[in-house]
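Sanity check

After download, print the first record. It should look like this:
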Amino acid sequence: MAFDESLLDDEGRRHSVDAQDLLRALAGAGAQLRRATTLAGEAPDLPRVAGGERPRAVHVAAVGSSEAVADVLDLLVSTSGPVLLTRDGSGPLPGWVGTLDLVVAVSVSGRAEGPVRQAREAARRGAHLLTVGPSGSPLADAAEAARGVHLPIAPSSDHSRTALWGLVTPTLRGLDACGVLEVPEHVLDRVADRLDEQAEACRPDAEYFVNPAKSLALELSEVTPVVLGDGPVTGVAARRASAMLARTARTPSTWGRLPDAAAQVVACLSGPLAVGEKAPDGGRDIFADPYLDAPAGQHLGLLLLRDPTPDTGGPAGEIERHNTAQSVADHAQDTGTRVLEHTAHPGHPLERLAELVALTDFASTYLAIGHGLDPATAPGLSDIHLPRKAP
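Expected structure tokens:
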């Protein structure tokens, strides 16, 4: 299915494809975060999370689109948190969870079977419980029965894939309240501002040459993407980008994080989807007519998400990651692979993550629209047997 750039610029045709207006929902991420901050701050039970004391360990139960919340928490806790954090929303509650631990169950619908089941099991074991989801949902009922804390999310018609910041924000506030993380409100304000900046840059009426998401979508339409993050923050962004490319644009992709994924990425560059030799313009035939000539076979493309370049006197680990990322990019270019690089602006890890997530969320949505695919639907998913929703 050929990518039609004109679909992105013609408002009427764009709306006919993006019938549920996913682009508008993405543009509201900053406002969504601000609403969630206010709602969490008004929750009278917020100081009671884990009894107001730091738990021994934290387990996060989240599945589907809500699983991205676990990625964000894992990032922050693993780099600066004083406790162990585990994650699994579909299996049984880990056997080690007990009265000294906190279980965080998150669901955008409040009815996801795994998180609700784990929340109820946490209550039976006497563990502390924090739930995040709609009021009046089975997840909220589980928290009430366990005398835990439920932080409600704002009622919204937003698609589950655009609800990330409405779920992340109350969860961060809850973990801040019990001393697991320190995320001041002014940091969240800056994250919301960064999201607003990306929404303005990626707005539908912005031309390609000033719209980074449209440009990225066009480039992604010509390759089979490998999404690579150069560190912890960009690794989370890479995983989110890969998921959005698959769910939203129906484009298969793989993802990885440096330095662990360096070997497998470099190996792919000499495989059957690689260009095979250094070629101008990433192996594309610049004289090919997309309307008259047969579609060219797609080759791998490397989407490299990067953190700002560290100072020469910065931590050795950051400098090493930067050098590894540059080596991979240079090798990819030497093999003729198209390298698409995007570097976050400096700021708190959450700010940098928000910038890259917003960019790739918009790009995935534009990619779907350009292919004439409704970005909010997933044809065939209803035909697959999935775990039932909790009552």
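If your output differs, re-run the checksum step. Summary of this record's structure: DSSP finds 14 helices and nine strands in the chain.
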